[in-house]
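Continuing the batch. This is chain 6 of the set; chains 1 through 5 are on the previous pages. Same settings as before, nothing changed between runs. Recording input and output for traceability.
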Amino acid sequence: MTSHAQESESKPDAILPFVRHVVSSRYEDLSEQAVQATKTFILDSLGVIIAGTLAPGVPQTLKTLRDWGGKEESTVLVLGGKLPAPSAAMMNSFMLHNQEFDCVHDEAVLHPFTTVLPVALAIAESTENITGMEFLTAVALGVNVSCSLGISSRSPMSFFRPGTAGAFGAVAAGGKLRGFDEETMRNAMGVAYSQICGTLQPHHEGAMVISMQTGFNARAAITAIALAEQGIVGASGVLEGKYGYFRLFEGEYEVDGELANLGKVWHVEKVSHKPFPTGRLTQGVIEAALSLCDAYNIEPQEITGCEAMVSPLVERLVGRPLANNTPSAQYAKLSIPFVLATALIRKKVSIDDFQANALSDPLIHSMADRISVVRDPQILDENAMMPVRLRIYLSSGVVHELRLEQIMGHPDKAFSKDQHLNKFRECWDAGATHLPSGNRDLLVDLIDGLEKLESVNEIIRLLTPTPN
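Output for chain 6:
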């Protein structure tokens, strides 16, 4: 591993090529696959925001932001009303992440749309005449930046990368929509770096605030964009300086390959759907359990034990046992014993499986006690999500086993168009009961032709409640 400790102080910071990439890139530079993937995951993310209105903490957070008040410039999607752009972006980002249903980039180990999209929407609404083509381009560029940072890391995560790396992607998207030149964009990145936040401690505890950490960074990104626009100067050694992002937040890194790929590789093409509303690191074992139960007609009462053999990252972050009989939804969604027990007993894992009565279900807890999570010693990559291997032991003495090399929803195991649309419709039906029903299909069609849209405000209009 090459050390960057001395050389990073003697060369231009890596933030500069990222800035040039964002400022100079046009819609025409995007690949056809990147355009389609960006539209796909914008729609997926909007659906997840709709479902996110139902999660714990939403009313309290929105009340706080409304009590603070301020300039009414950007819409709180689905729930309605306008807030200052930083507050609206924070709220929409919180709703995009709080169900653990938001799309992911598996290699980068982050949710790239969860900070980028709410910031792009808030900036677009507060800026006149942003077209669908401009919006699509900005979102794709933001995803490229945050994913490149995640892929460059070579160390185990300790900070919450969807928020920290996501902030830089959000600045890229928002600054692109504001038409920033290189100097202003670089300053915005530097100002954002002074604000980025979020660790894995809330993740470890299953605390509600874990869902807000992308929102805190979305708010920081818009603050940085506004300050840079007014001429505020940010730090320049943002990524590789003595106290730069890579060294303080990530550890070992290798960014040169990502810099060489700028404009050639579009990371949005490798974003994955989430088929279940749980932590991505739990989803391989859920899929394996559902597959085995379906293939062998396994019933819960037959199961005497389960063993999930997983990567170091998965074991460390979601191998946790249930600490008590009433876990929080956030803790349960990030616990393999809970989600695997749910899959084995209910033959599904959906949003309603994390309501209060489901969280305390004694059948789920009894099954969870029979589940062990062990680290696969053959997986040495500290950031690898896959493969996973699941063994189910039956009272008859039979053992069923399945090894999965890839998770459902990954581009190598991609959702069909029907699966993608079904997920969006299920999210709409769950949380959009107060929106005009006809808006659902209108939104699907609008995003499908996003590059032809005259104003991004049309997206927001379809996700705003009709006044009484």
